[in-house]
User: Fold these one by one.
Assistant:
Number 1:
Amino acid sequence: QQWEEDFVSVSILKGNCRIQQGEATLRSRQMVIWHRKTRQTDRISVYMEGEVRVDLPGESKTENSLLVNLVTQNGLKQDFRRPARITTAPDDPVLNRAIERRGIPHDHQLKRAQFIVEKPPLEG
């Protein structure tokens, strides 16, 4: 499942999920990916859950869940086997746990600031 939210592409992946960056490989059963593209970089936050494995040169690590932030200047290549496009965020338990782990409330849109201008005291 994939949609746009506040200029960020959000994807929920399930199954055999894998991310490769350089010599690092990240694998899990489920992933939630937030992808923000800027002029020079792609910034990606990835929440992984279920049989999480991180393979680095000379080192491997397993976790139940993990949140990582990645940055690349070489662009992003996506290969989804069965993509499903939707327009709004689904009520998905993995997404809810990912949002909680990421520490951003679900309603994270910018709010209009409210300013109160005090009137000067009346003279007299």
Number 2:
Amino acid sequence: MAMHWSNTLYAQDPIFSQFFASPLTVNPALAGNGDANWRLVGIRRNQWISAGTDPLNTTSLSFDGKLYKNKYDEHNYIGGGLLFLQDNGLAGAYKSTSFNFALSSHISLDADDVQGLSAGIGGTYSNTIIDFSQLSFASQLSSSGFNRTLPTNEAYMSSIKPYYSAFAGITYTLRTETTNFDIGIAGYRFFR
């Protein structure tokens, strides 16, 4: 079974070491889930800086909040958010861009909103561009060095197309004066 799963994995999703600072990349149920009515988050990450290559740069910008509060119980609300993600690497040869939206519903499980349950859904548009003219492959090595006019023999990579997909998740939240605990599950790329 592990071999089956390893054959279906295609790429690494964006992962931030301080994941709590980017809730929309973790779970769509977290859209609007917070103390403030609105939240704006910007993250810039560089990785593989010391590897001797051009680093992979990730930019994330998200905006989310409470779109509609129940007028009889403001602890129950509809949340929503937008997320922009972009990866750039290999000295400009690789670029991946995603636009995401999320909608969530939060229901308080008690009168003081110490415990809550949220469910969220969302969609994404993602596009990856690889500029082969900036890359060299082993098949392009000739007796006189690398010749980028030779074929790359990497045909599968030239057929990368933009895609649309959906995602969903649920979370349980426990908030006290000294504790902020969220646990949940989310699934991504349902239609890819």
Number 3:
Amino acid sequence: MSSSVAKNHEQGSPSLSSRTLEVNVCEQCGGNGYMKSTPNCYHTCLNCLGRGLTPQTSK
């Protein structure tokens, strides 16, 4: 472990596991990240920007 990483870890910085983001599968593309517009043409889903996941919204 490098010294800068060790110093940050010793100072109590949050670990990656504690910084998880609540996400949902995109409802528009079903998690694929793309949508089929014609039989041979696919387009990137604009709702999730091709990732297939959207941030969880609070209700």
Number 4:
Amino acid sequence: MWKLRFKFLYVCSSRNYHLWKGNNQAIMDNKSKSKSKTFHSATGLVASMKDPELKVKEDDRIVVIKDKYPKAQFHYLILPKADIPSLWHVKKENEDLLIHMHNVAEKLTREHEDYEFLIGYHAVPSMYRLHLHVISTDFNSPCLKTKYHWNSFTTPFFLHSTDICKELRETGELKEQKFEDSTAYLNVPLKCHKCSATPKNMPELKRHLMVHLPGKKSLFN
């Protein structure tokens, strides 16, 4: 599934958007169940913005939803109402929007003062529609299953919102990273984000993470 999603978003990059538009129509016209399922999963965020069970809050510019498959105790997505396909479609005129999204994210984190958070974007997002991740650093969730999941938040594959806003402010544009360079981070060896531990596999990593969660009650029990 990850490979399928990366393939979808690769053609949805700024320099390949015309390919995505063609594939979009082809998938819509194709009756293949597997292809239809892939398209739906990649564009599911747009539908989730209207789901009352996922929606947390909204204003005239953005919608905040809970991630349907949270990778931590608290995992939110902030999406613009404007139809911006991905981070690499952001323009200089969207600077105020990105700052607004970041400010909303910071307000969310203050609702959970006992937790640390990461605020940022995936270099190669797996879903259509620009979305900002707001995720607690406990990473205590049954949905955190693969090395790809882990490395997508704990390596330079994760682009911090403050850095993105600064780059857009100073240069007037966002320089898209090479697809191959970004996705290479997903295959690096596992490493704890809080200490020097290097677990051999995901079960070992998840057991180790409990060391860093004294006194915190799991929301998934």
